[in-house]
Specification:
Two copies of one chain form a homodimer. The first copy, chain A, is mainly β. The first copy, chain A, has one helix and eight strands, in the order βαβββββββ.
């Protein structure tokens, strides 16, 4: 039961597409991630997923359109909706999603992270 | 299914202690609130509540200690824990909590907000 400083937590890691858990409440996780480049198309069957941009510009590609998210903007990807996060330059995001959420959703590949580190 | 810009939403209201709903996912609400002055001691029997400070300094008083939250810091008040938010100067916060959460928790008074506005 301590306060969390986002900048301090962001300073603790540098790798991309590897979310860290920084908080838990009501069965949901609060995570931080650094993104660079293109991820993989995926969806989450049971989880809505919120991306809040803390730094940079995140391009969230959906099958029917693209959404550009700047610092201070968020987007909620509803469960079942395919999405592809793209970061042309490094992006820092805060994620809010159920504790059950797998980063690559319905896809299993080298980008998949199983047990996430807690900071 | 649109992106949300926090600054744009914050510009839409000016009153204090009256959270607005700006997102919903997995049975949780994302809210914005402006705080000024002292709230009321209360707790939430069934809900953990997250306060992320977007602007200003929030003093979160607990029965056994005080926690000072600056911009870019958050605190999760676990269910059942009495807390008293205090904002000496205006504070803007992002809240994450279950859709069932009542702002004054176990207390009903003039500060209680029933149906919240959606922005």
């Amino acid at each position: 039961m301590e306060k969390i400083n986002l900048a301090q937590k962001l300073a603790l890691f540098a790798d991309h597409w590897n979310p860290r858990i920084i908080g838990e409440l009501n069965g949901q996780h609060v995570k931080l991630a650094k993104l660079l480049g293109e991820f993989v198309w995926h969806s989450h069957a049971e989880e809505d997923e919120m991306f809040l941009v803390l730094k940079g510009t995140l391009l969230m590609r959906l099958r029917d359109r693209d959404i550009e998210l700047s610092e201070g903007e968020f987007f909620i990807v509803p469960r079942g909706v395919e999405h592809l996060p793209v970061a042309v330059e490094e992006v820092h995001v805060l994620l809010f999603e159920p504790a059950s959420t797998l980063n690559t959703g319905n896809v299993q590949n080298e980008r998949t992270r199983g047990e996430l580190e807690r900071l």
